[in-house]
Design brief:
Layout lengths: L5 H6 L6 H7 L7 E3 L5 E3 L1 H6 L7 E7 L9 H14 L4 E5 L4 H5 L7 E2 L2 E4 L1 H5 L5 H21 L6 E6 L3 E3 L9 E3 L10 E3 L1 E3 L4 H8 L3 H10 L1 E5 L4 E3 H4 L2 H8 L6 E5 L4 E4 L14 H10 L2 E5 L4 H16 L5 E6 L1 H7 L12 H19 L5 E6 L6 H13 L4 E4 L1 H4 L5 H12 L15 H11 L5 E3 L2 H15 L4 E4 L19 E10 L4 E6 L18 E2 L5 E2 L3
Parallel strand pairs: 3-16, 3-17, 4-15, 4-16, 8-11, 17-18, 18-19, 20-22, 21-23
Antiparallel strand pairs: 1-2, 2-14, 5-6, 6-14, 7-12, 9-10, 12-13, 14-15, 22-23, 24-25
Length: 558
């Protein structure tokens, strides 16, 4: 029997009207702004009315370092949400929105897979409710107003060499990384070098995802440092007077999007910062709203636990006052074999020794997550090629690390395939064992925060940074930004800054290439190794096979 593709399964979904999904959570229809029949935004007034309600339990789903073998973190997040509902818990899923850049690049869609998906899949992976377009527009409005201010006399005395606000677009386009603007003579302004980042790396994206409400959003937008004067004083977004108009553009984007899983359970899909170059979590407002409406909230953080989970704990939970009750680390037998040195073409052959050899990557992530005081369970996302002996090897290894690994078959069987994990998560969450604390205190010096992450999470020996970078961090500390957490921009494929180094390496160095102040979002971005804030398309991008078929359906997206 041929296995159906994710998009075929999604297309056959028996979706319920979004008003019914809202009613499951107790959201009156007048507080839902529908986008068609299967998605809606939740109104700000309703969200404010929830303030006095108790919070449910927050469950983080994270993973090992991603490999070409596939791990299935979003699939497990969605499956676990369905599984918790199946065993009688009122559970809500919270995930990020997909960026167009990776959709048309390497990755394809990002809504789960098999029988553990969020729908409508095609819309979620394309324009959805327009949130990313609004973020792009708000970001670039500020860019335009900075150049316009300089053109009309520059009363703030901005040093054109010290404008730090770049432009963004939601596409992978390496040609725009470094560009010169305002060529063509006097009427076009003053030529200068700048560039584009991808929208998901925008500070506006981070601000939207960390803001509690529209008032908080506008304050944070106003706090953005966009440039420096000739005597090196910061120029803020509010000095350019762009914060009000940006808030207007983001008014609807700030409202969480409600959709549903294939099993008609509620899911909030809101915000989408990348985890390798930004903080990699869905919005605080969606998570907090879900916590007021459900007994359990299952959320994910992007890429491996060294990136997504660390930033979830050290940035999102710290800033939003969240306390996760338990964490799930997703792993696959196939990925263990790849970490053990097996080529992708040979993953279908049983190789227990390679599984054992690859397990230390998982072990490192287990230890790292435990170091935050959060109890851990491992979800083995099942593939048809997995053998009993290989699964047993992973379970035995995880047991040696003081945790439990549970085989999950949600991809093939939906919630019925993940009941065991759901029950384990409930027992961990109900045990009260979580003693969550961030990795470092607010008052630790900035460079020491970078070293703490590099040494304790990446197991590096040292951080290499030029004097200019260390001096920049000290300057920000003197300016009152020393209390901010750091957001590490690093390859997702390895604990090192070299994407080709798998496993659990030690003795490596973490080179810091650049640091950026995100004063509005409230963190310092630390760019390591060769990581790019504007990705490029691969040699054969996914866009080449995406098209409309004769029935008007999208093909090639996943």
């Amino acid at each position: 029997m041929a296995v159906k593709t994710d998009i075929e399964i999604a297309r056959e979904a028996k979706k319920k009207p979004i008003m019914e999904i809202g009613a499951k959570l107790g959201i009156p229809s007048e507080h839902l702004l529908p986008y068609g029949h299967d998605k809606a935004k939740v109104g700000q007034e309703f969200i404010k009315s929830l303030a006095g309600k108790p919070d449910g339990k927050l469950i983080l789903v994270t993973a090992i370092n991603p490999t070409p073998a596939g791990e299935g973190k979003t699939t497990t997040t969605v499956g676990l949400g369905d599984g918790l509902n199946r065993i009688g818990k009122k559970a809500v899923v919270c995930i990020r929105e997909a960026s167009l850049g990776p959709n048309f690049g390497m990755k394809g869609g990002a809504a789960g897979g098999g029988y553990a998906q969020v729908v409508p899949m095609e819309e979620m992976n394309l324009h959805f409710t327009g949130d990313f377009h609004a973020i792009t527009s708000a970001h670039n409005l500020l860019s335009a107003m900075i150049d316009n201010h300089i053109y009309w006399g520059n009363s703030l005395d901005i040093d054109e060499r010290r404008i730090v606000w770049r432009r963004v677009m939601d596409m992978n386009d390496r040609a725009l990384r470094d560009i010169v603007v305002s060529l063509g003579g006097v009427s076009n302004g003053f030529p200068r070098q700048t560039g584009f980042d991808i929208t998901v790396a925008s500070e506006v994206m981070a601000i939207l995802c960390l803001s509690n409400d529209l008032e908080d959003l506008q304050k944070r937008l106003g706090d953005i440092v966009v440039a420096y004067t000739r005597d090196k004083k910061p120029v803020y977004c509010r000095d350019i007077k762009a914060d009000g108009a940006m808030t207007v553009l983001l008014k609807d984007a700030m409202q969480p999007n409600l959709v549903q899983t294939l099993e008609n359970n509620p899911a909030f899909v809101h915000g989408g910062p990348f985890a390798n170059i930004a903080h990699g979590c869905n919005s605080v407002i969606a998570t907090k709203t879900a916590l007021k409406l459900g007994d359990y909230v299952v959320t994910e953080a992007g890429f491996g636990a060294d990136l997504g989970a660390e930033k979830f704990f050290d940035i999102k939970c710290r800033k939003a006052g969240l306390k996760p009750a338990a964490a799930v680390i997703v792993a696959t037998v196939r990925a263990m074999k790849m970490n053990g040195g097996v080529a992708k073409a040979d993953l279908g052959t049983e190789n227990v020794e390679a599984v054992k050899k690859g397990c230390p990557n998982l072990g490192r992530h287990i230890a790292n997550v435990k170091s935050f005081g959060v109890p851990v369970v491992v979800a083995i996302n099942h593939f048809f090629s997995d053998t009993d002996a290989e699964v047993a090897a992973v379970k035995a290894y995880v047991a040696e690390q003081g945790a439990e690994a549970i085989l999950c078959k949600h991809w093939a069987h939906g919630s019925a395939g993940i009941e065991d994990l759901a029950k384990k998560v409930v027992s961990l969450a109900e045990s009260g064992a979580s003693a969550f604390a961030p990795l470092y205190p607010d008052d630790m010096p900035l460079f020491q925060k970078v070293e703490t992450i590099a040494k304790r999470i990446y197991h590096a020996d040292e951080v290499i940074a030029d004097k200019s970078i260390r001096d920049q961090l000290k300057t920000w500390e003197a300016a009152g930004y020393g209390h901010l957490p750091v957001c590490m921009a690093k390859t997702q494929y390895s604990f090192t800054t070299d994407p080709n180094v798998r496993g659990a390496p030690t003795g490596h160095s973490v080179p810091v290439r650049e640091v950026r102040l995100s004063a509005g979002a409230g963190f310092i971005v630390v760019i390591c190794g060769e990581i790019m804030t504007m990705p490029g398309l691969p040699k054969v991008p996914s866009a080449e096979v995406i098209r409309l078929n004769d029935q008007g359906h999208v093909e090639g997206l996943f």
